[in-house]
Specification:
Order of helices and strands of chain B: EHEEHEHEEHEH
Shape of chain B: globular
Number of domains of chain A: 2
Radius of gyration of chain B: 16 Å
Strand content of chain A: 15-25%
Number of strands of chain B: 7
Largest sheet of chain A: 9 strands, mixed
Structural class of chain A: alpha/beta
Distance between the termini of chain B: 15 Å
Strand order of the largest sheet of chain A: 4-3-5-6-7-8-9-14-13
Oligomer: heterodimer
CATH architecture of the largest domain in chain A: 3-Layer(aba) Sandwich
Number of helices of chain A: 11
CATH topology of the largest domain in chain B: VC0802-like
Distance between the termini of chain A: 42 Å
CATH topology of the largest domain in chain A: Rossmann fold
């Protein structure tokens, strides 16, 4: 199914012309309205009028996450405040949050690409869609929400968490689609099986994203609850979810190139790599009004494929995200974010959020050890109670991540506290 | 008759036990009874010391995870069958022992016993004419 077949299947040539025109327009807007870019262009002796073809993109400078931070909060906006109708922000765990803005037209663009994405996965007005992404400053919830309404689905804006409620509404309302992170989807799958709800629910499609996940995880979810699981990709700096989406072929995610131009570069040299080679994904947001970004470095590693897909779409496909340079660990094929471990520990009243993750490789098998502090008031002088707590943590970690961790309880207040970015991971594997 | 025992959670880390005893030594706190329950990566030190409140405070100051636990200290004759006789009474009264440890002196032996209800244990032991060490006594040993 297509939401906008004309553009999604347009010839590469037409697309090239459209991109060239839009790139030029964007550069002009940047030059006229964003001092950061104007200075940069002036420094490099570039004028937007010299850039008339998208093939010249590789001669232009990159934009880094640090640039967003340096210009916090509104320094990179290309429109006056009265034209901004929405602000989102990252959690800011590593310092100042990253702020992104949208004009009315940007929200329409976002809704359009989300509508294309959901239609691509076969979602329509005959679906009841449970949006279990977080609503709020995070772009996941609202981004998916507007697209889902656009295609006419009956949207349940339940937001993330509260598994009991998720399962109850899934059963009572007969949800046919769920959108959430893949790790939460895996947890929901397990819960559905544990509660013996499989015969009582009508779920058939999953739209999962916001964190890298594996093909194994997809199979796990698809097989355990019998749905088709689609990968959606996006990042708030570019627009939010809906930058790219998998079609029914599940062979890479189509990037909506009429709005976002992707490039794959060598992360060390910045040089553009030939088609199919693995490198860092870079995006230029040619239609964004409030916060246009030029060659934004995503730090996500993947590949691009330009051959026409079996679904008929001509828009380039990106492969799975192989890794993000930041903090993801791949343990026994499962992607582990320290934040996932953290969320488990935070949920348990007996443990503090101070922990260390130690990964080793013994006999070709990854081992995961989590050292965690016991909250002072919960520690008892009975061995069996402490051993019970270890098992409880182990179980909670296994439930969320699907892997067994060995848990080591350490004395309260013995873990290092961090004021800036925490170093919580020790990876001893020599890979 | 309730005796205050110190329980300290210790990571299995070289030197940690030495640090603990150093703090007690520096504050002139005498150890009367001492036991270690060892897990794979942590242990629980249980000890009876002179001036337990002071010991608790100074250990806290030195960032040890310490709690005070109520125990009973039973005196039994230091001869064959002494422990058996006492345990028989305890089990006949349906009391489960969480843990215990003992030390022997010249004529007597002392058994430190932890159960769910220390008060109940003490009552039963007294009803059966068994001798208990008063807290004041054991802290002096």
């Amino acid at each position: 199914m297509f939401w906008n077949k004309e553009i999604e299947c347009s010839s590469r040539n037409e697309l090239h012309n459209l991109q060239s025109k839009r790139l030029h327009d964007m550069l002009l807007r940047m030059y006229n309205n964003v001092p950061f870019y104007r200075n940069k262009f002036t420094e490099l002796g570039i004028h937007p009028n010299d850039i008339t073809n998208v093939s010249q993109l590789s001669s232009l400078p990159f934009t880094y996450k640090q640039d967003l931070r340096d210009n916090y909060p509104f320094g990179l906006f290309a429109v006056p405040q009265h034209q901004v109708v929405r602000l989102h922000a990252s959690s800011g765990t590593t310092g100042k949050p990253t702020v992104v803005a949208y004009t009315q037209k940007d929200l329409e663009t976002w809704t359009e690409v989300m509508a294309r994405s959901l239609t691509m996965a076969g979602i329509s007005n005959s679906d009841i869609m449970q949006v279990a992404y977080g609503y709020g400053l995070f772009t996941g919830g609202l981004g998916v929400h507007y697209g889902a309404e656009k295609v006419g689905a009956s949207v349940i804006p339940i937001s993330g968490g509260n598994t009991k409620k998720q399962l109850q509404l899934m059963e009572d309302f007969g949800s046919t689609v769920i959108a959430c992170t893949p790790s939460y989807a895996a947890f929901l799958s397990e819960s559905i099986l544990a509660e013996k709800l499989l015969d009582k629910i009508k779920l058939k499609i999953g739209v999962f994203g916001a964190e890298p996940w594996t093909e194994e995880m997809r199979s796990f979810i698809q097989n355990s609850i019998g749905i088709k699981a689609y990968n959606i990709y996006g990042l708030s700096e570019i627009i939010g979810p809906g930058v790219s989406m998998e079609c029914e072929c599940q062979n890479g995610s189509h990037i909506f190139e009429d709005h976002f131009i992707p490039e794959i570069i060598n992360p060390d040299t910045g040089e553009v790599l030939p088609e199919g080679e693995l490198g860092e994904l870079v995006f230029t947001t040619i239609t964004k009004e409030a916060l246009p970004l030029l060659r934004y470095r995503t730090r996500d590693l993947t590949t691009l494929h330009y051959d026409t897909c079996a679904c008929g779409r001509t828009m380039v496909r990106m492969g799975r995200i192989i890794g993000r340079s930041d903090d993801m660990l791949i343990i026994r094929g499962v992607n582990v974010f320290p934040s996932q471990v953290e969320s488990v520990l935070i949920e348990l009243a007996e443990t503090t959020p101070h922990y260390t993750i130690i990964v080793n490789r013994e006999n070709n098998l990854d081992t995961l050890e989590i050292q965690v502090e016991v909250v002072e008031q919960y520690w008892t002088d009975e061995m069996k109670v402490l051993d019970g707590l270890k098992k409880k943590i182990q179980h909670a970690i296994a439930n969320l991540l699907g892997i067994n961790a060995s848990i080591k309880l350490v004395e309260p207040n013995s873990m290092q506290r961090f004021e800036g970015k925490a170093q919580r991971v020790i990876d001893n594997r020599k890979l | 008759m309730i005796v205050k025992q110190l329980s300290v959670f210790l990571e299995n880390k070289l030197g940690r036990l030495t640090e603990l005893t150093k703090v007690l030594a520096e504050h002139d706190i005498n150890i009367s009874a001492f036991s270690i329950a060892d897990g794979t990566d942590y242990g629980i030190i249980r000890c009876i010391v002179g001036r337990p409140e002071l010991a608790y405070t100074v250990l806290k100051e030195h960032k040890f995870s310490v709690t005070i636990t109520d125990v009973a200290c039973l005196i039994i004759p230091h001869k064959p069958g002494g422990l058996y006789h006492a345990l028989q009474i305890i089990s006949n009264n349906n009391i489960s022992i969480d843990y215990m440890y003992a030390f022997a002196a010249e004529h007597d032996a002392v058994v430190v016993i932890r159960t769910e209800s220390t008060q109940e244990l003490i009552q039963i032991l007294q009803d059966n004419k068994l001798e208990l060490l008063r807290s004041g006594d054991i802290y002096q040993i």
